[in-house]
């Protein structure tokens, strides 16, 4: 068992540094000459502050809530323990800037001050694994409501910010082929049930006035549902996520997924969006 250091740190001081300011044991130790992180941890355990930190009464900002909802529908995951929840996010090495911009929005409740790198190049399981950048939040009570939400609940709370995160996480920009010189979106929802997919399509239509299709075949060995958007709807969706409050993330870190224009051809000549664009250019 670790022995207590000679000089005692009072409980109210540690409460302020550890709970209110959110400093780690190592960061607190740096403020006190002669103390190591294990000395600080000794007192945190003595005062019962370690478990209390899991119950810190943090109030999430609206932007943080949008990030959490979008990540929960996309690539993020939750971990629940000690009556509190942590959000875990990871992205491929080539998406570091995207992961970094997410991290900046929520790092005030993270256990570390920068992204962590996970080298997966030496993993030998028959798959080519991409190395990743990751971050995770502290375990906080304020996150519990999102952990307890079903996918239906998450989609009920969807807005343009969280839709942007969901699309950037799980969306694919289908590049043009053949005579059609336009791009379109597909949104992977392989983890969803068919009922959840149908609800997602309804929500996207109700909230963003976008029509969608569905790529699915019951004869597939491992059916993977994919929500599809035609060229016009994809262009509109790109405008929605570009112009939302968090749109700078898409523009600065994932611009290759944005659709900035529609090329007029036989396939697109009847699209209302194209007609509106043409009328604005003429006027």
Automatic annotation (TrEMBL):
GO MF terms on file? endonuclease activity
SUPFAM superfamilies in the record, alphabetically? Homing endonucleases
Instruction: Tell me the ranges covered by the Homing endonuclease LAGLIDADG domain, including all copies.
Output: 67-234
In terms of superkingdom, the source organism counts as: Bacteria
State one Pfam family annotation. Answer: LAGLIDADG_2
Could you tell me which InterPro entries the record lists for this protein? Homing_endonucl (IPR027434), LAGLIDADG_dom (IPR004860)
Q: What is this protein called?
A: Homing endonuclease LAGLIDADG domain-containing protein
């Amino acid at each position: 068992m670790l022995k207590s250091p000679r000089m005692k740190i009072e409980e109210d001081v540690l409460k302020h540094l550890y709970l209110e300011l959110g400093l780690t044991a190592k960061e607190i130790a740096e403020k006190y000459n002669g103390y190591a992180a294990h000395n600080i941890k000794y007192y945190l355990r003595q005062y019962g502050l370690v478990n209390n930190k899991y119950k810190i009464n943090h109030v999430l900002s609206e932007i943080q809530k949008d990030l959490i909802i979008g990540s929960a529908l996309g690539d993020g995951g939750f971990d629940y323990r000690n009556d509190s929840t942590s959000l875990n996010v990871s992205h491929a090495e080539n998406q570091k800037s995207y992961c970094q911009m997410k991290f900046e929005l929520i790092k005030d409740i993270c256990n570390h001050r920068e992204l962590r790198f996970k080298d997966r190049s030496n993993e030998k399981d028959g798959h080519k694994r991409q190395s990743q950048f990751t971050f995770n939040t502290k375990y906080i009570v304020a996150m519990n409501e999102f952990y307890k939400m079903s996918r239906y609940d998450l989609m009920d709370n969807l807005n343009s910010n969280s839709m942007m995160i969901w699309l950037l996480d799980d969306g694919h920009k289908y590049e043009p082929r053949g005579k059609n010189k336009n791009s379109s979106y597909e949104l992977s929802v392989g983890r969803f049930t068919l009922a959840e997919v149908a609800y997602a399509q309804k929500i996207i239509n109700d909230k963003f006035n976008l029509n969608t299709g569905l790529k699915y075949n019951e004869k597939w060995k491992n059916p993977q549902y994919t929500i599809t958007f035609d060229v016009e709807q994809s262009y509109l969706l790109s405008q929605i996520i570009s112009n939302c409050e968090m749109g700078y993330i898409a523009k600065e870190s994932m611009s290759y997924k944005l659709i900035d224009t529609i090329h007029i051809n036989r396939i697109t000549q009847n699209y209302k969006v194209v007609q509106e664009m043409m009328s604005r250019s003429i006027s």
